[in-house]
Amino acid sequence: xxxxxxxxxxxxGSYFASPIAYIVxxxxxxxxxxxxxxxxxxxxxxxxxxxxxxxxxxxxPEMDVPSLVLRNFMGxxxxxxxxxxxxxxxxxxxxxxxxxxxxxxxxxxxxEWQIVLGKFFAxxxxxxxxxxxxxxxxxxxxxxxxxxxxxxxxxxxxxGVLLLGAVLVAIGSFISSLTESQIIAAVxxxxxxxxxxxxxxxxxxxxxxxxxxQYLSILRHFDDFSRGVIDTSSVVFYLSLTVLGLFLTLRTLxxxxxxxx
Length: 261
What we know:
Mean pLDDT: 83
Largest sheet: none
Order of helices and strands: HHHHHHHHHHHH
Structural class: mainly alpha
Shape: elongated
């Protein structure tokens, strides 16, 4: 446990010692803030139009603006992080290999699992720091919304975003462990995430292939969370992919040790 904490503190210090973390977080909040504002404006406008129509033709069904805004906002966030996380994970191992400090870590008393878990938790924590300020948007909406904030949808939505982020961080870290170039790591990670996005688009139809693609699509599993439903199978799916990504990273570190020996 001490080894994991040592790696974790080292990695968190390196993140905030460079401007990359601040730039990524700032850009993420700028983009998500823009989309949240537009989504909220659209549904508020629709609610006003329905109120005007009610005054002329009778009362229509009540429109739950907070729930609709949350569902659409979470869907946007799940897509944005596909393009943001490569910038967070590109240097997890690639920079270490380029500077030659990876060999120092491998010859230290730390085990491969301690290195892998310490780096993963640090990158995932940075992702959490990036995501946390978006809760301010929800607090402001809850303050002025009627009906009130659907807390179940809020909680399940953010749980889904965290689980999805854990999978992407694990995959991005694995790809970073395969190269010494941060640029190559970022580009390959971006391409892999883009393929996962395309896989979700192609996961339609009633054929067996469509059903398989739908099950393997990491974004399709997120749909239940955005609706306020916590599906145990989806939780297990995300956790299994995260463990798989960490295991593949461990095998890469093992191969480094064997090649050095």
